[in-house]
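ok new one. same drill as before - structure tokens go in, u give me an amino acid for every spot. 110 of them this time. try not to just spam alanines like last time pls lmao
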């Protein structure tokens, strides 16, 4: 009977030790699960930020392209205006010369 009681006591001690180990393992598992949940939440948040940044990048590229096209159009317009200005200036000079020549002829006629 003493031997059975000693065995029971030893088994009870082992059982309590195993229960304690199991409780510790369960606590660590819960902590790990919380860290995993937190990491997953952070990943989702970061993915949302990355997606928002990608959308913003696409929008900025589109705006840049549009601005570049407007700039090219304005540059072509400026070039045309300068060409027109040069042409008008040359026409003006020719007309001044023609007027001067006509005035000279008119003075000779007087």
């Amino acid at each position: 009977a003493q031997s059975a009681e000693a065995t029971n006591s030893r088994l009870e001690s082992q059982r309590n030790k195993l229960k304690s180990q199991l409780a510790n393992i369960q606590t660590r598992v819960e902590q790990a699960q919380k860290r995993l949940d937190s990491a997953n939440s952070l990943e989702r948040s970061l993915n949302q930020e990355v997606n928002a940044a990608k959308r913003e990048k696409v929008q900025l590229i589109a705006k840049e392209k549009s601005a570049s096209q407007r700039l090219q159009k304005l540059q072509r317009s400026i070039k045309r205006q300068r060409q027109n200005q040069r042409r008008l200036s040359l026409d003006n000079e020719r007309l001044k010369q023609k007027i001067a020549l006509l005035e000279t002829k008119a003075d000779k006629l007087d």
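The CA atoms of residues 51 and 91 lie 60 Å apart. and btw The helical segments are 2-109.
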